[in-house]
C-alpha cells in the first residue's frame, strides 16, 4: 500500500512541472504578443525615428525575462539610439538585423549583464519580430517622405509656373521663385537663394555672404548661358540630393524659358515700334511733302487756268488742291499717331491730352482726357508703352466697338500708377472679355507691353455697356 502511494506521488510531480512550464510559456507568449501589439500600434508614419525607437524600448524591455536589468540599442540609418541606463559594459546580448528594401541598414540589440541568460529562442524570436516591424516602418516612412518631397516639388513648380504665366517683371518673377522655392527645401528656415540673370543679381530675404554650402543650376536661354540659380545652407546642414538638385534644375529651366519668351516679346514690341516710327517718319517727311507739293501745283494750275478763262478746268484744279490739303492733314495726323512728337517734347500727360483732342477731331466723337493728379514719368520707354496702350485701346474702341464717347484717365496714388480707357461701344474685335480670349495682334501687343512694364492689364465689360481697359503698375 505504501509503495503504491509513493508511486502515485512520484507520478504527480511531472504533471505539476509540466503545467508550470506551460503556464510560463503562455505568460511569455502573452508578453510577446502584447509587446508587438503596442509597438505596432504606436508606429505612426508621422513620428520621428528617435520617437519610434524610444517607443520600442518602452515596450520591448518589459517583455524581456529580466526587464529590471535589460537594456537595448538600435542602430538605424547611421544613427544610434539607446534605452535608459544603458552603458557600454553589458556584453551578453541578442541581436537582429534591420533590413530596409532587402538591404541591411542597422540592427536591434538587447543586453543583459553577463551572469543572466537569455530565454532563447523566445526572446530571440521577439527581437527578430520587432526588428522586422521597424524595418517595414522605416520603408514606409521613406516612401512617405519621398511622396511629401515630391508633393512639395510639384506644388513649388506649379506655383512658380503659374506666376510666370502672368508674365511679371524680372524682379517680380525672381522674388516669386524665392517665395515658393525656399519653402520646398529640406530646411526652409535657414535656406537662402540667389538668381544671377542677364547681368543682374537678385537675392532672397536674409541672404548673407558667409554661406558656402550650396546647390546651383545654370540658366540658359536660346541655348546660351545667361545666369544661374543658387540655393545656400549653412555648412552644417546637408542638402537632400538628388531631390533638391532636380527641383533647382527644373526651376532654372523654367526661368530660362520664361526669359526667352520675354526677350521675344520685347523684340516683337521693339520691331513694331520701329516700324511705326519708320512709317510715321515717311508719312511726315516724304508722302506728306509730296501731297503738299501736288496741292501747291494744283493751286498754281487753278490760277493759270482761271487767267485763260476756262472756269470748269479751274474748278477741277481747285478741287484737287483742296483734296491734297485734306490728305496732307490726314498724313500729319497719321504721322502724329505713329510718331508721337508731343510725347518726346512735353511728356506723357501732354501727349495723351493732344491724342484725345486729335481723336475727337478725326472721328468726330467725344474723347476726354482726365489727369487726376500730377503724374511725372521720366522714363521714356515707360511713357511710350503707356501711351501706346492708351492709343491701341482707344482705336479698338472706335474701330471695332463703334464707340461715340471715350474717356482716358491717368493718375497715381500710393505709388500705384493707374490708366483707364473707358468707352460706350460694343466691345473689342477679337477679344472675349468674359473668357479673356484674344486673337487680335493689337491686343496681344498691349498685353506684351503691360507685361514688359510688370503691370497688370484687365479688360472689363460693364453692365450698362462699353468696355474699360485698366492698367495698374507700381511706380519704382
UniProtKB/TrEMBL annotation:
This is histidine kinase. It catalyses: ATP + protein L-histidine = ADP + protein N-phospho-L-histidine. PANTHER family: NITRATE/NITRITE SENSOR PROTEIN NARX-RELATED, NITRATE_NITRITE SENSOR PROTEIN NARQ. Keywords: ATP-binding, Kinase, Nucleotide-binding, Phosphoprotein, Transferase, Two-component regulatory system. Residues 1-20 are annotated as: Disordered. Pfam families: HATPase_c, HisKA_3. It is an enzyme of class 2 (transferase). It comes from the Bacteria. Its EC number is 2.7.13.3. Residues 381-475 form the Histidine kinase/HSP90-like ATPase domain.
